[in-house]
Amino acid sequence: MGMFFKTLFKNTKISTKFNLFVILIFIIGILLSGSTFWIALEQRAEAEVSSKALVLMETMNGVRSYTQDRIKPLLKERLETESKFTPEAVAPFSAREVFEYFRKNPGYENFIFKNAAPNPTNLRDQADEFETKLVKEFQNQPSSEKNGWRDFSFGKAFYTARPIVIKKPSCLECHSTPDIAPKSLLATYGTKHGFGWKLNDIVAAQIVYVPAEEIMASVRRSFVMTLGILIGTFLLIVFSLNFLLKRTVIQRIQKIAKTAQAASLGDMKADFEEDSKDEIGILAMAFNRMKYSLEVAMKRLNPRERN
Ligand code: HEC
After folding, report:
1. Distances in Å between the alpha carbon of 275 and those of 229, 252, 278?
2. Nearest residue CA, atom 42 of ligand 1?
3. Mean pLDDT in each 10-residue stretch from start to end of the chain (307 residues)?
4. 152 alpha carbon to ligand 1 midpoint, in Å?
5. What is d(CA 25, CA 17) in angstroms, rounded to the nearest whole number?
6. Which of 90, 94, 202 to probe ligand 1 with, by most ligand atoms within 8 A of CB?
């Protein structure tokens, strides 16, 4: 194999050797720089969507705390007296509702906030397969946050999820068994869902999905553009190098070879004319001197041919 390439390399033209070498270097360079650049771009995109998700998550936690600390005390009595439940007193509900208003802004339609519970009080919060798996993961392997990607019909989205834990015994007033829950709750949500929760249970995951299609598209655009510029620059370099090589080396060597060939066949008028003083010019001048010496020597050997 090595021998094969050695012979092949020996017998190819200068320009072919030159181009093979430059193209090889370029392909290696493009692969290395392209993949590094792509990874860097992807990391930047992920950092951007994940920081958006985090800000939204903390904002929603603010809404939850506000509801818990300021709204719930105001509405507490209504939960006992009214026949219909007042969900505005419940923190996950207000977070979800605030987010629905947020989503109404143009450009934010595909952002999603969910209190995903495998056994929810409000069926709107029913965790789908993906989210149920996330809740299970939180239950099996306690962690404060999980991040990742999920495919939707509108494209890829980045999610940030946090577990919702039953930390206070007061939560169980409404989520343990139907017989101690407020009547209004039973009237509105029924007795089948959102019960049987226990203290310290991880019952749901609070999830923010940030659509990433737009930023991924812009990442792809910058990647293709940069790669295009790189390849264009390379082609320009190869073409101009080839042009220079042909003009300053190859064509002149071919001319010298042709002249030497003619001279060897006896055409002593053939001249290695060169007006340049570079390496090839010096070579041509040396050939001229050699041809002249040869002419003189031949005339001495063959005096009859003198004219
Ligand atoms: C006064 C009754 C009540 C109390 C107390 C209460 N919740 Fe709820 N919770 C509800 C109702 C009703 C809903 C459904 C609201 C809606 O319509 O979105 C709900 C919804 C939730 C949800 C969203 C998933 C689902 O079931 O729909 C979570 C998570 C949750 N509660 C956790 C808690 C935790 C944790 C506590 C204690 C800090 C708590 N709840 C205290 C009544 C209550």
Report:
1. 39, 11, 9
2. 174
3. 78 88 93 95 95 98 97 92 94 98 96 98 97 97 95 95 96 95 94 95 98 93 95 94 93 92 85 85 91 88 65
4. 27
5. 12
6. 90
